[in-house]
Amino acid sequence: MSAELPFLPFSRPTIDEATITAVGEVLRSGWITSGPKVAAFEARMSEYFGGRPVRTFNSGTCTMEIALRIAGIGPGDEVITTPISWVATANVIIEVGATPVFADIDPVTRNIDLDQVEAAITPRTKAIIPVYLSGLPVDMDRLYAIAAKHKLRVVEDAAQAFGSEWKGKRIGAFGDFVSFSFQANKNLTTGEGGALVLNNLEEAKIAEKYRLQGVTRSGVDGIDVDVLGGKYNMSDIMAAIGLGQFDNIEAITAHRRALARRYYEAFGPDFEAQSGAQLPLQAFDSSNYHLFQIILPDHGPGTRADFMNAMKERFNIGTGYHYSPIHLFTLYRERGFKEGMFPVAEKLGYLTVTLPMFYAMTFADVDRAVAAVKAILIK
Ligand SMILES: *Cc1c(COP(=O)(O)O)cnc(C)c1O
């Protein structure tokens, strides 16, 4: 019966007609690479983040790599991050030649545990990369107190947190480097893309160099190259999508929060006791609910695969997993990481499942997803 309902994916981008028209205008304009749309998108984000400089890029990965380079972090330096994130978060540390150090996660927030961060600090520690998983910030007061005490830079991996807040302030409007991703599933998308919020125009100028081959202006009409940069610029086609999405960001965040409320209501107060599963923290004032993730009751190997298959086969509903513990990937095992080092991350990494959550989703879709989860987990 349920299988006859249309497929409900765990995520789907919404691009409105005004945005499609705006993209068409860029395509007809004769200028499709970085230009006026990129400048306008950066200016609007800068205004949104209280006037802090913002620069756009072609991913939310190179943003973090460039932030580390601006901070002068490289070989011999240690950078502390979480084992539960998209692998990009740790890869950028290796990319700049520094050493990744993991700190285990907090089982309630599922974000990096700041006590574990403090315990992992050594004289070689230069920076922390916290991740706001599913859009939930860490304790930002505590994070920046730790950074100040130990003189560490912070590169916030806020890839999932566009529109999230901390005590009434937008994530991005304060702090050190703040990195956002506009990859297809993110709350605000440009197809692929990213943005970095910086501290001052001097850093922004360096970011611009790294964004385009290290090229810098010198002389009247000459150029020079004084650092090794990459090819990381955003195009006006992407920026036009971003500007269109930006017009709806308040509505996007509000609707996702409403969907999250509906999830909690539909699961009801007895769901956790009846199923053995764990719902995410309720955080309507801070999280943008980029993802809605539950932790499954542990039935041994295959727990998550069996659940995901049942959701798909019996109910035609897509789910996802975000994320496998980074330290257990081969690249990281080769660097000495192994099972047992971060027990909370290892447990949650294999039991967390992402339920459908996207802007075009309806309350009826939420009810359908919850009914399916209950049918599978409550015997
Ligand atoms: C999406 C994402 C990234 C990477 O962003 P890209 O734009 O795909 O490079 C990094 N970290 C987290 C937590 C993400 O969700």
Task: Tell me about this structure.
This protein is an alpha/beta fold and 379 residues long. The chain has two domains: 17-246, Aspartate Aminotransferase, domain 2, CATH 3.40.640.10; 249-377, Aspartate Aminotransferase, domain 1 (Alpha-Beta Complex), CATH 3.90.1150.10. It has helices at residues 17-29, 36-48, 62-70, 88-95, 114-120, 140-150, 201-211, 236-246, 249-267, 271-275, 303-315, 330-333, 343-351, 363-377; strands at residues 54-57, 78-81, 99-102, 125-129, 153-157, 165-166, 169-170, 177-181, 194-197, 215-218, 222-225, 292-295, 352-355. A seven-stranded mixed beta sheet has the order 1-9-8-5-4-2-3, sandwiched between helices. The radius of gyration is 21 Å and the shape is globular. The mean pLDDT is 96.
Structural class, from secondary structure content?
Answer: alpha/beta
Strand percentage, roughly?
5-15%
Helical proportion, percent range? 25-40%
Reading the helices and strands in chain order gives: HHEHEHEHEHEEEEEHEEHHHEHHHEH
